[in-house]
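Sorry to interrupt, but I need a hand with the structure work. Please put the record directly below this note.
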Amino acid sequence: MRIVFMGTPDFAASHLEVLLQSNYNVVGVFSQPDRPKGRGRKLMPTPVKLVSLKYGIPVFQPDSVNTGDGFDTLCKLSPDVIITVAYGKLLKKRVIELPSLGCYNVHASLLPKYRGAAPIQRTLENGETKTGITIFKIDEGMDSGPIAMAESIDIEISDNFGTLFEKLKTLGIKMLLDFAGSLDSHRPFLIPQNDEEASFAPKILPEDLLLKDFSSATRVFNKIRAFDPAPGVRTSLGGEIIKLFGARPGAEETAGVDGEIVEIDDSGIVVSCGSGSVIISLVQFSGKKKMRPMDALSGRLLGKGMVLGG
């Protein structure tokens, strides 16, 4: 079975590496073009490209796999199946119809919920208690094709983006190996998605990371953990920008206006949020590393009675 793999970030790279370690016949890899990163804006290879080079697998980075040289290269690879994981580009009909076994995607949500680019973050941001991995056959829509496999996991109150990412990566790898093994013997039974139940997970924009409203402890808690440990939710404090990490629910009732720091101790800062509170264990000021709030208190960067988001 000739496999072409398409993916870009760390989540995808882990799936590719396990396929290669399991001796699947990956004949080529497609990833997005290298992008400039860091202060020096140096071109950096994608994580998927790095794995491909490590194992000596041909890797291609066309602007489009649907047309021109990108499509011609794909045709020459003669794939039996195309597997995509967080590739970041939609496949058109001519690509979808190319492999005899079809094109399949590993998606980090329980479809049809959270179709789109940022399912893990949006799932946490909306306070869901369950999520999972779906493997589906690609059609011309966005994450809308019929489902081949799906498994769910619970979202714990202690989960943030980092921990949930790792749990879903582990589950996705297990499911992909099971799925790839089954393709050798039979075609998967496919279940159409119910479009009426669909919801969407749009890509993260800079404004999504800004926290202004501290009127609900639940919303504040979910917002912070959805982007923790990176890139971090930011808010304002006395005219400065501060990022917030390590959130957990606090007491149901606190005295103070919304966003007010009502306590600072070794556990963090207690922030009044509507009828409840949120405890934040790490903060980061512009140009500084993450620090414990008690250290920020010692440096006179934080103080009881200060108001976040104002």
Observations:
- The radius of gyration is 22 Å.
- The chain has two domains: 3-201, 206-307.
- The helical segments are 10-21, 47-54, 68-77, 93-96, 119-125, 161-183, 217-226, 293-298.
